[in-house]
Amino acid sequence: MIQTGFEQRVKVQQIIDSQLPEFLRSESPKSVDFLKQYYISQEYQGGPSDVAENLDQYLQLDNFTQEVISGQTTLYSGISSTTDTVQVYSTKGFPKEYGLFRIGDEIVTYTGVTTNTFTGCIRGFSGIQTYRTDLNSEELVFKKTSQSSHTAGDTVQNLSALFLKEFYKKIKYTFTPGLEDTDFVSDLDVNNFIKESGSLYKAKGTKESFKILFNVLYGVTPTVVDLERYLIKPSDAEFLKREVVVAERISGDPNRLVGQTIVNSADENTKASVSEVEIFTRSGISTFYKLNLFVGYTDRSTIEGTFKVQPKVKSITKYLVE
User: Fold this and answer.
1) Per the domain annotation, does 321 fall within a domain?
2) Residue 298 sits in which domain range?
3) Last residue of a domain, one of 202, 227, 252
4) Is 159 helix (H, G, I), strand (E, B) or coil?
5) Are 301 and 182 in the same domain?
6) Which end of the chain is more exposed for a tag (fewer CB within 10 A), N or C?
7) CA–CA separation, 208 vs 214, rounded Å?
8) For residues 177 and 47, what is the distance between their CA atoms, to the nearest angstrom?
């Protein structure tokens, strides 16, 4: 049965006999039957009165059992157009009485159920078979049907759970965006997954999120392979970056500047470390020194300020030249 707790609430159809005055029941006994049948037509699972009185139950996630969400079973044996007892593989998710189900193009109602049987079936019934048409998602489809024969293995759709399934779609859209039109595996505890769905989105993009998603959609735990670990890289080394200053020697030995810090004499806030010194000549006469200034391993430069052409520069440490 649909485990919603609806059956625990008193229905008008159950107490109509005691609510009518004695003279009405004695003088017009058919009026009792008429009113009872009227309230049955309004209080069936998913009916107008049922939805209004049990809206709080429809909103509870605990009512979204897998049997209700799948909303179908299968005929165990074939039936003729007059059969009033229908055997199926399971009646889980169907109301105990006055439920509606559809086989092919025929709608059937019943007065009772067992574990795998619908009893007291009224064939060729009429009712709502879907809440939307192909061309208008806001228009429901009410259909009148007639009796017909069906074979074993035909699908039996639970029409009494249509309203609850619509709530299920809305809740999936709210709590599991992106999965609202996706069918989950048949043995998933749906209400528990929706309650805990926040962990899936918080772990988005990680191995754990892929494992959760594959379990929900396919019922398997995947092995996630990080392909980056198998990519061929040209080098794992860090690249050194340098800036170059060309200078002419005034005095001392420029080669001793390696590993030292030079400072702009005009601006002591401009300074840098020398990582290498190269000597070169121009026109075979003038001798110059190329000072490689260490920038660093990252995008953040270790050079402070900007070196410009100045009359002279100085080292922060004095060295004697032999």
Assistant:
1) no
2) 241-315
3) 227
4) helix
5) no
6) C
7) 10
8) 29
Mean pLDDT confidence for 37-52? 74
The amino acid sitting at 141 is V
Question: Of 279, 281, 286, nearest to 258 (Cα)?
Answer: 279
> Which SS3 state, helix, strand or coil, does residue 205 take?
coil
Angle, helix 29-43 to helix 12-19, in steps of 10 degrees: 160
Which has the closest alpha carbon to 57: 7, 12, 11? 7
Percent of the chain with pLDDT over 90: 16
CB atoms within 10 A of CB 209: 16
Closest CA to 317 of 274, 277, 266, 287: 274
pLDDT of residue 316: 57
Tokens of 277: 């010194």
Side chain identity at residue 43, one-letter code: E
pLDDT, tens only, 178-193: 887 788 887 788 878 8
> Within this chain, do residues 98 and 208 fall inside the same structural domain, yes or no?
no
